Amino acid sequence: MNFKNLVAAIAIGVGTLAAAVVAEAADKKVVVGYQTDALPSSVAIANGEFAKSTGYDIDFRRFNSGAEIFAAIASGDVQVGYVGSSPFAAAVSRGLEVKAFYLASISGIDEALVVRNGSGIESVNDLKGKKLAAAPVSTDHYQLLALIKSLGLTEKDVQVFAIPQPEIVASYNRGDIDGGFVWDPALTELKKNGKVLVTSKDVADKGAPTFSAWVATSKFAADNPQFLKSFAAVINKYYTSFASDKAAWGPDSDNAKSLAKLLGGTPDQQASALKNLTLLTPEVQASDAWLGGGEKAGAGRILKDTASFLKEQGKVSDVLANYGAFVTADALTGVSN
What we know:
The protein is α/β, with parallel strands linked by helices. Helices cover 45% and strands 17% of the residues.
């Protein structure tokens, strides 16, 4: 090989290597949708630990609801997102292929129906004829409708407005609605001029449990299993810290300040909201009661029950035979407290 040919060969080799590096870098980009819920792991969004631990270039985008995130997933704009079980059930019933790989929380007191002072509502028996609101196809929307049904009422008896949370707060403050089923920061805002009438846990105990989860498109999950494991490990790191070191999550803590800067509100409000969460350890999540067990997965049963209710309400047209295929415990392997 003469000198010119050698130089040409080297140039081709360098070009091929560079192209491969660029291609690999492009493959390690992901768009992740999150919401305004107070979660310990959101600190890792603010400080960049998710990106550092996974080795991916992560574009975090904030949305007002799980329904918005699923719309973005359906369009191909988002690959991973934090969502509630009601929009989750609706999305997969309509054919979207996603998998839940980590449960962020389950029904607790972090979501609730708050009724306005002066609304004339003292108990659930006073809801007839009132105007209530919840974010469209959210877990709160689902539980509000389930609550109304459990009282023997329909949407003809109680006006239900499906509007985004910022609009709920504005309508509530104007006196246009009597109450809203919401999560933070809207929950904190509504309580300033009202009281909690029913919590998510109360509705769950009556037969309509919910959960919030991190989901990924089925294709992304299949192509990037290590990303999901690393992502889950980061979530668990912060959940473990929150469970074991309360002082590190108080109103004056750096963590609370970080959450307030990212999500809005004050550090005190974020610290207070965190106390309302009901969290599960990775070991419990991986059991058949939740993400494990394939078709027997408890989270899958919740999705099916939710879809059945949504069909009764005319929100979805079909209910699948089984929803176990939309949850997986694979990312929890090796993750423990």
